[in-house]
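Colleagues,

Please find the record for the two-part complex below.
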Amino acid sequence: MIEQLSVFLENQPGRLAQACRTLGNAGINMRALMVADTEQFGVVRVICDRPNTAKTVLEAAGFGVSVTGVYAVETPDRPGGLADVLEALGTAGLNVEYAYCFLEPGENAAVNVLKIDEGDARDVLEAAGYRVLRPEDLYEPDDPS
Amino acid sequence: MFQPQWEAMSREKLEAVQVERLNAVLTRVYERVPFYTRAFDEHGVRPQVASLDDVGQLPFTVKDDLRSNYPYGMFAAPRRDIVRVHASSGTTGQITVVGYTQTDIDNWADLMARTLASAGATADDVVQVAYGYGLFTGGLGVHYGAERLGAITIPISGGNTKRQVQVLQDFGTTVLACTPSYSLLLAETAEEMGVDLSSLPLRAGVFGAEPWSENMRAQIEQKLSVTAIDIYGLSEVLGPGVASECSEQHGLHVNEDHFLIEIVDPETLQPVEDGEYGEVVFTTLTKEGIPVIRYRTRDISRIIPGECPCGRVFRRMERVSGRSDDMLIIRGVNVFPSQIEQVLTGIEGVAPHYQVILGRKGSMDTVDVHVEVAADTEFDEIRELEELQRRVRSEIQSALAVSIGVRLVEPRSIERSEGKARRVVDQRGDA
């Protein structure tokens, strides 16, 4: 599993910018960002370097943050690539809470981020021949201290 | 129970005692206190009741009446019979004075002994009285009760927190009496001093004189390793000893043989049904020095319907949830911001920090409650946050009986204040 930040944001002009600026000022680089929103608030999901440090920095700046475990799966960048992954999970009876994708430049591979609450999705995905990425494949993990 | 002959008497007998005592006190104030002579005459009411149903005819007393009769104008006993005075400062700066006869002091000691006993204390206990001694009723009130109970009484008064911890440790204190916020300071100081409170004999605390919440109780009980008992009183009525929780920790038994409690609608001043919230009104039944008739406390509470398993006959008032001065009227319904706080403390995932925004849409008032999400919430899934929002909304609506909107806001985003929090923002004038 990899660690993803989930940041609670009120729908206000400039609030997302403040969150990003806070991470930027702390020298934390983002790999992916996705906003899920309702009429009144949103949750911003972020894959970035040193996620636990990022959480501390954002909290100090007044944001509500949690760190969530998600799966990152590498799939070939071709039509039907993601559908194959999801079918493998569906066949195993695993429900996907949400998903988003990003491309690794020059790698000809897509990274699919999946939130799956129950069961051991890693076994299912690896048995279907997919590479489940480790934190160090995607971002600089926190110091072990 | 310290006085089971009173505390566990039958309801019927209690009401007979109340009527008899009420008539005696009405006669007393009508004959001796010019303020009451005037008040009864102006209302055209005789200072006698046939039953408790007649209490609603009697005039009210408010804090201002005590101020305008400063210092001794409300006393109903000759100066030579008064043996003690206490005073309360009040927020306006003008102090009010209350006087006690020897009988009052004796009754007070009994009532405070009842209070301590309802927290489980006996003559074998060591009671550390960390309420302030002086004009404030807290220190001496608890002191006399602890002595009446036969406990070892430590008159340490408030302040000097390190010494409090030392005494707590060395004297083998088993019961602590102070304000709830001071108990937390004590716990922090003990921790800094490296004293492990859970290893000490301390096992109970009687806390009062300021509003506190169930959350705070949980904190106190955990940090001090005590059973925390809420006690209630006010100097105009007696001081501590008016009402106290028992070991059930579910409502404060009002010492109804000494005080008549009513809950009234703060707007109409009409009595509300048991279980409904309103302003607490007390009539003293035995006080000689300064009896009060239908004294409006401005405190908001309700009677908890039903009997208590502890066996006391006295009805229970809920922990005070606010002041009637804070009351809002929304689409004709009386709303106390503290009711919202009460709901929020019971819901995991939100902080008890909120702001009520009053607005207007056309001719309708709108109410939006902004509620902070707790900092340690799982923020990941929208569905769960929406569910939380729905739950907060439906629980507040059912508590207030008025329809409102709820907006979840970021942790720590609502302005904090040192003193009184700004809970209500009225934007109705801006539109």
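Chain B has a mean pLDDT of 91.

Comments are welcome before we finalize the supplementary table.
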